[in-house]
Automatic annotation (TrEMBL):
SMART domains assigned: AAA (SM00382)
Family matches, as CDD domains: ABC_MJ0796_LolCDE_FtsE (cd03255)
Name this protein carries in UniProt: ABC transporter ATP-binding protein
Highest taxon of source: Bacteria
Pfam (any one): ABC_tran
UniProt xrefs under PANTHER family: IMPORT ATP-BINDING PROTEIN
Lineage: Bacteria, Deltaproteobacteria, Bradymonadales, Bradymonadaceae, Persicimonas
Keywords assigned: ATP-binding, Nucleotide-binding, Transport
PROSITE patterns assigned: ABC_TRANSPORTER_1, ABC_TRANSPORTER_2
Source organism of this protein record: Persicimonas caeni
The keyword ATP-binding belongs to this UniProt entry's keyword annotation: yes
Domain ABC transporter intervals: 22-264
Ranges in a coiled coil: none
Length: 267
């Protein structure tokens, strides 16, 4: 007779990065008051798990930026619930929300938002002077800024100022800045909107590599279909309504005709 071996107690493996789990329940958003009050997001519910690469796509005015800003804790004027881990964002004070945002989120915008009078390295290490994390003191910060520039293929541009950089290079600096505090999730609003097609794909390749190699969670708003198709999940908005939320086989830049991405970074 076969005897069953006694079961070994299963050991829970500790994951290196705690799971980010943004969940949104019945989210609506209005602008204006009285007669002029218009609803720009309607009853949106969704969750984003740790390590996902999500694009949010839709025509102009469909509510993409509004949704991203609410998820990223930049806009707290809405109805519904937004959670990150155990935190309900609407229950946090402004100070708690801004601390959470500084520690856990990175942001990349269409217009780069770099300070022209600072060098690339200084633009990246600047957040350390506001003490978002106790370990990011200024001396180590310069070294970290250099490492991050190396990572995005701009190791030789530490001392250059934004006016001396191309659009794609500026966006790489902005990505390095977003990575400075080791965020668990990066929100990007039209990160390729000011770039030509090839440069835009190079930037998306950096995001794909960050997602694949470091399991970084990424949420990218775009109105460009070919950019959206580089993510592994596509959320589609129409007039503030979530009309599709589907898994996607991510397109690689070389499939879109960009064979050499010219990224000498370590990603
Ligand atoms: N501050 C505001 N006050 C009033 N209405 C606003 C404001 N910001 C956005 N809207 C309106 O909300 C709707 C959604 O705007 P949102 O910027 O989220 O759309 P979007 O999909 O990101 O558009 P785009 O691709 O053009 O950036 C639009 O109709 C816009 O006019």
């Amino acid at each position: 007779m076969l005897r069953r071996r006694p079961r070994r107690p299963t050991r829970r493996r500790k994951s290196k990065r705690p799971a980010v789990d943004i969940s949104i329940t019945d989210l609506s958003k209005h602008y204006g008051k009285g007669q002029g009050r218009t609803r720009v997001l309607r009853d949106i519910s969704l969750s984003i798990r740790s390590g996902e690469f999500v694009s949010i796509v839709g025509t102009s005015g469909s509510g993409k930026t509004t949704l991203l800003n609410i998820m990223g804790g930049l806009d707290r004027n809405y109805e519904g619930a937004v959670r990150l881990d155990e935190h309900r964002l609407e229950e946090l004070s402004d100070k708690e929300l801004s601390r959470l945002r500084n520690r856990k989120f990175g942001f990349v915008f269409q217009q780069f938002n770099l300070l022209d009078h600072l060098t690339a390295g200084e633009n990246i290490s600047l957040p350390s002077y506001f003490g978002a994390k106790p370990d990011s003191t200024a001396p180590g910060a310069d070294e970290r800024a250099r490492e991050l520039l190396q990572k995005v293929g701009l190791g030789d541009k530490t001392a250059e100022r934004p006016p001396q950089l191309s659009g794609g290079q500026k966006q790489r600096v902005a990505i390095a800045r977003a990575l400075f505090h080791q965020p668990r999730i990066i929100f990007c609003d039209e990160p390729t909107g000011s770039l030509d097609r090839k440069t835009g794909l190079q930037i998306m390749k950096i995001f794909q590599d960050l997602n694949r190699e470091e399991q970084m969670t990424l949420v990218v708003v775009t109105h460009e279909e070919h950019i959206a198709r580089m993510a592994s999940r596509i959320i589609r908005l129409e007039d503030g309504v979530l009309v599709a939320d589907e898994a996607n086989e991510p397109v690689q830049p070389d499939e879109l005709g960009v064979l050499s991405i010219g990224n000498e970074g370590t990603l």
